Amino acid sequence: MVAVAGTMDAPRVLERRRIVIADPEIPGSKQPYHAAAELPFPKAEALLRKAIESSRALAVEAISAIVKELQSRGHDVAGCTVLRGSGKALPKLEGILASHALIHTAEGEMFRDALVWAAQECRLQVTCVREREFDAASLQHIHSLGKLIGPPWTQDQKCATVAALKAFFK
User: What is the mean pLDDT of residues 9-23?
Assistant: First the structure.
């Protein structure tokens, strides 16, 4: 999670942190589709439902806490941008569980969906952006922020920053 303000020409990172939306107390929650692939279909569906519900609850808790903290520091929260995957439609659950590659894709989408759902529950405007939509110049411009704020300054943080600035601070 990266909270930003300013413009593309003068960006400011207000906060960055890791949001945990997989409950370590729930077996298989970190990779629920991997865990589900080993189960009979009805149990697989139940495990995925539980993982989704748990991830949503954790995401709401994390996002609402971040919004409150930013507001307590005098910032208005304009919205939330979530980076999305390729956008390729997933098949039904049976097809996902039959393909290791689709299992990975489904897990990524599940966690992204939980973030979108949670942001909407927190009454935030949500903008979704696919990573392939970023131009090299924007990312290079944001790259220099890493020197100011220190590590880690990962590719996903850079993409999230650019996406938020373009969506909310035009």
Answer: 92
Residue 137 has pLDDT above 90, yes or no: no
Interatomic CA distance for residues 77 and 168, integer angstroms: 10
Q: What DSSP assignment string belongs to 76-97?
A: ----EEEEE---PPP--HHHHH
Identify whether the C-beta of residue 36 lies closer than 8 Å to the C-beta of residue 48. Answer: yes
Domain ranges across the chain:
2-168
3-state secondary structure of 146: helix
Rounded Cα–Cα distance for residues 146 and 154 (Å): 9
Q: Does domain 2-168 have CATH number 1.10.3100?
A: yes
Residues 100-110 as b or e (16 or more Cβ within 10 Å = b): eebbebbbebb
